[in-house]
């Protein structure tokens, strides 16, 4: 009987752990910009990159198993990829140009901006670094607008009121509603996979920290609490 109870308790703990959502973000905790992983409740902080260079803009793969990011560890910004635990880091773009703003396609390839041809254009590459080629010229995607998973709503940052706030609206950007309403700057919104929460960055405690809020503006919670800047939050998808 005791073994049965213990087994049930362990299963409960395991399921609870599985239900905790995670965020990747960038922090200056160690003096330069590195990528960290943290549970939504602020526990389980884990450093994923540890390089003298700076690492930015982490973006989760659709299956939640890898992260693509930018690093200047080779002297200029290149597109890198790593496993969710920070292992198996690989340079995907390998260019002397500026490669920027990586984002995943639905089928697991990576789009990014580059000026290697003296003007900004989109390139695409497979996650193993193969099939690198131009994708689209003359179309630079919006960097600070985040679509809800079902595509019906957007979250974006705007300084329409004199400081940066997070706004929620429909897909046509009508009836935009300010959900942060704070004198501080609130930026970098990002929906979670279920579309029920939004992570964002705010400097309301004196430096940039990661916060989570519900789409109706309630349930505000501070996730990171330190004396350096934390930014660019990205929710981890469920591992598939």
Q: Can you characterise this structure?
A:
With 240 residues, this protein is mainly beta. The protein folds into 2 domains: 22-52 and 142-240, TolB, C-terminal domain (Neuraminidase, 6 Propeller); 56-140. The protein is built from 1 helix and 20 strands. The chain has one helix at 2-19; strands spanning 22-27, 34-39, 46-47, 55-60, 66-71, 78-83, 90-91, 99-104, 110-114, 121-125, 133-137, 145-147, 153-158, 165-170, 177-178, 186-191, 198-202, 209-213, 221-222, 230-235. The strands form 5 sheets. A 4-stranded antiparallel β-sheet has the order 3-2-1-20, with no helix packed on it. The chain has a 4-stranded antiparallel β-sheet with strand order 4-5-6-7, with no helix packed on it. Strands 8-9-10-11 form a 4-stranded antiparallel β-sheet, with no helix packed on it. 32% of the residues are buried.
Summarize the structure.
By secondary structure, the protein is mainly beta. It is 8% helix and 40% strand.
Keywords:
4-stranded antiparallel beta sheet; Neuraminidase; disordered N terminus; 240 residues; 20 strands; mainly beta; 40% strand
């Amino acid at each position: 009987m005791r073994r049965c109870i213990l087994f049930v308790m362990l299963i409960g703990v395991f399921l609870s752990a599985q239900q905790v959502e995670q965020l990747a973000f960038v922090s200056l905790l160690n003096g330069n910009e590195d990528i960290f992983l943290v549970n939504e409740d602020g526990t389980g902080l884990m450093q994923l990159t540890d390089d003298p260079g700076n690492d930015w803009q982490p973006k989760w793969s659709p299956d939640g198993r890898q992260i693509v990011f930018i690093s200047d560890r080779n002297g200029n910004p290149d597109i890198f990829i790593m496993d969710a635990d920070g292992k198996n880091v690989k340079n995907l773009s390998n260019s002397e140009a500026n490669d920027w703003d990586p984002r995943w396609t639905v089928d697991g390839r990576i789009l990014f901006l580059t000026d290697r041809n003296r003007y900004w254009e989109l390139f695409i590459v497979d996650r193993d670094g193969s099939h690198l080629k131009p994708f689209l010229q003359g179309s630079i995607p919006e960097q600070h607008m985040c679509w809800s998973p079902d595509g019906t709503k957007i979250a974006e940052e705007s300084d329409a009121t004199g400081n940066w706030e997070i706004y929620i609206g429909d897909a046509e950007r009508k009836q935009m509603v300010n959900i942060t309403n704070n004198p501080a700057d609130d930026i970098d919104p990002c929906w979670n996979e279920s579309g029920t929460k939004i992570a964002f960055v705010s400097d309301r405690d004196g430096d940039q920290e990661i916060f989570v809020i519900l789409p109706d503006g309630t349930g505000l919670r501070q996730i990171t609490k330190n004396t350096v800047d934390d930014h660019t939050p990205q929710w981890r998808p469920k591992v598939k």
